[in-house]
């Protein structure tokens, strides 16, 4: 039986972020092009993003703040990715 090395939390987070970047850079544009989707909008509420919203967050975010909208658009050549959210009031202080 093959032995697997246990990853540190930092290594695991780095791997999760690499996989997310790969999905956003390569997989998402090809799926949008294949399905003829010009824009995909995912809305998540604070602390209740749902499984799709959670899968779009980098490892440094445990959950979205306030209501967040993840917007992906495809014009046939270049994908555009945006996150729209209210600023955290703690940052303004």
Chart the SSEs and their pairings.
Elements lengths: L8 H27 L3 E6 L5 H7 L11 E7 L4 E7 L3 H4 L1
Antiparallel strand pairs: 1-2, 2-3
Please explain how this structure is put together:
It is a single chain. By secondary structure, the chain is an alpha+beta fold. It has 3 helices and 3 strands; from the N terminus they run H-E-H-E-E-H. The protein has one domain (9-92). A 3-stranded antiparallel beta sheet has the order 1-2-3, covered by helices on one side. A hairpin with a 4-residue loop joins strand 2 (68-74) and strand 3 (79-85). The longest helix has 27 residues, at 9-35. It is flat and about 45 Å long.
Short characterization:
With 93 residues, the protein is an alpha+beta fold. The protein is built from three helices and three strands.
């Amino acid at each position: 039986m093959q032995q697997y090395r246990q990853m540190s939390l930092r290594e695991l987070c780095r791997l999760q972020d690499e996989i997310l970047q790969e999905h956003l850079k390569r997989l998402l544009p090809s799926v949008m092009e294949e399905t003829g989707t010009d824009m995909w909008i995912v809305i998540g509420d604070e602390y209740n993003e749902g499984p799709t919203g959670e899968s779009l967050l980098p490892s440094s975010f445990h959950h979205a703040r306030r209501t967040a909208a993840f917007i992906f658009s495809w014009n046939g050549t270049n994908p555009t990715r945006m996150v729209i959210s209210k600023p955290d009031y703690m940052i303004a202080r």
